[in-house]
Amino acid sequence: MSSYNPVLIRVNTDSGLSGIGEVGLAYGAGAKAGVGIIRDLAPLIVGEDPLNIEKIWEFFFRKTFWGMGGRERFLCRNERY
């Protein structure tokens, strides 16, 4: 059985909203991959309205490799900043 290594992410906005979510890749080597995914994707939404979740979802779906599978794991935990 793989070890469980949860990766938590804290999202802070310039308007003072914040929240904590979990990256869905937490088993075995997946935890390290989850950290890399967050580092790569987070800068793509800096400056976006955190309350416009639909726009952010659409962006990741259309513009990233992860949009066709992994973006759900990235965003579903962070829908509520």
Automatic annotation (TrEMBL):
<dbReference type="Pfam" id="PF02746">
    <property type="entry name" value="MR_MLE_N"/>
</dbReference>
<dbReference type="InterPro" id="IPR013341">
    <property type="entry name" value="Mandelate_racemase_N_dom"/>
</dbReference>
<protein>
    <submittedName>
        <fullName>MR-MLE family protein</fullName>
    </submittedName>
</protein>
<dbReference type="InterPro" id="IPR029017">
    <property type="entry name" value="Enolase-like_N"/>
</dbReference>
<feature type="domain" description="Mandelate racemase/muconate lactonizing enzyme N-terminal">
    <location>
        <begin position="6"/>
        <end position="68"/>
    </location>
</feature>
